[in-house]
């Protein structure tokens, strides 16, 4: 009888192959499970849309686009996207109401909150369901405090806080409504929107070029500009976009990072940086698509506090913290910065993910220096194999910006 004997090299090869197969199967199983948990369906989407329209018909919610969604059907459902962290996202087609005279795709969103998470608006009412004078004053104070506390947003004495935070003129709406409790309906709709950080951020900072346009609302749903990553920002094995377009998008991403650092009353931290969370508008401007992941410095500090035994215990997604090992407490400061994350997760190649970085295949005239600068940007302490806990320097940012602004005739053929 012949006894099979494995040569050491063959045994090692077999073992490596078997382990790789097991890892691949585990990854596929995990991804499939996550997909199952987050997937959406046409049936569920229709149920959600029917529900908000039914509430609109019985005058319990309103907004400037409710009629277009629920009556004239100028806004129609196209598809849903995967649900994540309670957020419901639909791609809709808007016929002439979002952009005058044009049929455009828009994104319709809301973020579901549990009863425990939701800050309810309970106000004194008259017998007919309208607000008492005290109720109106309470709502005004609550919304002023909410807008200032979360976004440092203030209104002048001549402005109406309700109109500023909603999609309609509050006074005109109440004046022309055919039902007595229109003031209460309006305030409940506004308050449901203010519970969503993304809506409030976009509403307050609509003047910024990287904030998607808000077209309107219906109840707790808001309608915003459709700005997919497109071929330029989407990672992949092969990207056909010319270098000039990719370099221009990179410059705009650096501009976003600079703006978040300097253009607000406090620095703003973006804690979920990936290409999926940026898009390109029809004007090719870069847009931030997930402002739920934006945190002002004071709130960021709270997210980075707590007990710890190692630095990883203090991290909040892409925002890396620092553990004071002797005291076993997080010190509440972020150790990296937005540009470091952008360089590491978007600009450079990511072999583990099999994705090309946005700035791959640079023109020969700058390729060598650009590669060095990008490494300094992504790994300021030459710590490629570690979790980065160092901010990218301003000097590196300025040199990177200069290189990307360089124009040569050879770029035409890139």
TrEMBL record:
This is Protein FAM69C. Belongs to the DIPK family. Keywords: Disulfide bond, Endoplasmic reticulum, Membrane, Signal-anchor, Transmembrane, Transmembrane helix. InterPro entries: FAM69_kinase_dom, FAM69_N, Kinase-like_dom_sf. It is found in: Endoplasmic reticulum membrane. GO terms for cellular component: endoplasmic reticulum membrane. It is a single-pass type II membrane protein. It comes from the Eukaryota. The chain crosses the membrane at residues 12-31. Residues 18-111 form the FAM69 N-terminal domain. Its main location: endoplasmic reticulum. PANTHER family: DIVERGENT PROTEIN KINASE DOMAIN 1C, DIVERGENT PROTEIN KINASE DOMAIN 1C-RELATED. It comes from Mizuhopecten yessoensis (Japanese scallop). The keyword Endoplasmic reticulum applies. It holds the Pfam family PIP49_C. Residues 190-379 form the FAM69 protein-kinase domain.
């Amino acid at each position: 009888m012949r006894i099979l004997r494995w040569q050491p090299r063959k045994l090692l090869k077999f073992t490596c192959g078997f382990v790789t197969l097991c890892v691949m199967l585990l990854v596929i199983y995990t991804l499939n499970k996550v997909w199952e948990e987050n997937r959406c369906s046409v049936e569920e989407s229709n149920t959600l849309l029917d529900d908000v329209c039914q509430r609109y018909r019985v005058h319990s919610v309103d907004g400037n686009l409710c009629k277009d969604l629920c009556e004239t059907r100028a806004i129609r459902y196209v598809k849903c996207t995967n649900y994540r962290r309670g957020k419901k996202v639909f791609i809709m087609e808007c016929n002439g109401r979002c952009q005058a005279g044009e049929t455009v795709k828009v994104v319709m969103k809301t973020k579901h909150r549990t009863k425990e998470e939701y800050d309810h608006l309970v106000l004194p009412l008259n017998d007919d369901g309208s607000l008492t004078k005290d109720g109106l004053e309470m709502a005004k104070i609550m919304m002023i405090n909410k807008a200032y506390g979360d976004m440092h947003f203030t209104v002048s004495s001549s402005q109406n806080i309700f109109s500023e935070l909603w999609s309609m003129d509050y006074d005109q709406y109440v004046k022309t409504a055919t039902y007595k409790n229109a003031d209460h309906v309006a305030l409940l709709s506004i308050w449901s929107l203010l519970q969503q950080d993304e809506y409030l951020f976009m509403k307050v900072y609509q003047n910024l070029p990287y904030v998607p346009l808000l077209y309107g609302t219906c109840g707790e749903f808001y309608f915003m500009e459709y700005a997919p990553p497109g071929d330029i920002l989407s990672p992949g094995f092969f990207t056909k976009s010319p270098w000039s377009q990719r370099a221009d998008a990179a410059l705009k991403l650096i501009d976003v990072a600079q703006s978040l650092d300097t253009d607000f009353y406090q620095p703003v931290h973006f804690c979920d940086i990936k290409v999926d969370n940026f898009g390109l508008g029809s004007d090719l401007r870069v847009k931030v698509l997930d402002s739920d992941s934006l945190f002002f410095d004071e709130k960021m500090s709270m997210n980075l506090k707590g007990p710890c035994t190692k630095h990883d215990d203090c991290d909040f997604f892409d925002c890396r913290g620092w553990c004071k090992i002797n005291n076993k407490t997080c010190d509440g400061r972020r150790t990296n910065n937005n540009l470091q994350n952008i360089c590491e997760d978007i600009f450079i190649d990511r072999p583990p993910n099999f994705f090309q970085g946005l700035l791959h295949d640079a023109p020969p005239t700058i390729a060598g220096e650009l590669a060095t600068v990008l490494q300094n940007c992504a790994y300021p302490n030459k710590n490629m194999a570690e979790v980065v806990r160092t901010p990218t320097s301003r000097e590196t940012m300025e040199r990177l910006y200069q290189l990307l602004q360089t124009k040569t005739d050879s770029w035409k053929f890139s």
